[in-house]
Every structure is written in C-alpha cells, then in structure tokens.
Amino acid sequence: MYKKILVPLDGSGLAETVLPHAAALARAMGAEVTLVSVVHFLLGASGAKLDAVPEAAAERKAALKAEAMIYLGKIQRDLKGQGVAARCVALEGDVASEIIAHAEQEESDLIAMGTHGRSGIDRFVMGSIAEKVVRGTRKPVLLIRALPATPRPVDWRELSVPPLL
Question: What confidence score (pLDDT) does residue 55 get?
C-alpha cells in the first residue's frame, strides 16, 4: 500500500516523534522513507527575505542546506540501523508548499509528520505547517501529535536527605 513515505523534519525533537511510526510502517510495508527538511530564508526580525542581499543569501542558503543534510544524514543512519531504507532531501522555500510539491514530484504514497498541537492564539500567530499540508495535498497524511516529555514521577525513596543535627 505504501512504498514511498515522505517524512518532513524541522530539527526539533517534537517533529522527530513521527520517526518510530514512520519506521514501523516502512518496515511493515517494505517502503522507502524520504527525510525532508525545508529551510526558509529570512533576515532578522523584520522578516525581510534573505534574497535582498544576493551574495550573503547564496552563502547562507548553502550553509543552511548543508546543516540540514548533516542532520538528516544522522537520522538516515539510525533508520538504516533499524532496517529501513531512507534518503535525504533539503529543500528551500515556503515549508508547507515545498513539502506538498515534493510529495507530488516524488509520487509519495504517504506524508508522515509530527504536529506540535498548537491551538488558540499560538496557532493563529504561528500557523500550522501540518494543517497547511493536510489542506493542500491529496496525499494521505499521518499526523503524530508531539507532546512534550513528561517528567518522571519522583520516587521519594530514592532521595538521600541528610539527617538533621
């Protein structure tokens, strides 16, 4: 059913929560995973496009894409160790648009991604890449809600408290 699984990653641990699910699906289906990172170029807090300074833009784009490929390469090696075939792609541009376009271009059967689970004003201000992908593609999308790690419950017997004198 699924032979090509596209997994977009942004470098965050929350986004990586999709990886065990994508790996399990890939192993079960004999699918190849394509790890994708999209770098979006902006200068400063004003949001000016990096292309406004062409020389600096070319260098910065190359550096960001190289960093993305190093990051994806580490995950690719981890997946290979789990018996999953994977390849890496670094793209540039609008994140959701690039994910959708790459899924179409590569004829991916499934897009599997983590979602930060933002709601309310955070979602309004930050936007939701996952929502934009779901709304913008005809491909099936598997969303894994990334929840922050919960602290381990304290076992009070493990604490060493010095006696009072």
Answer: 77
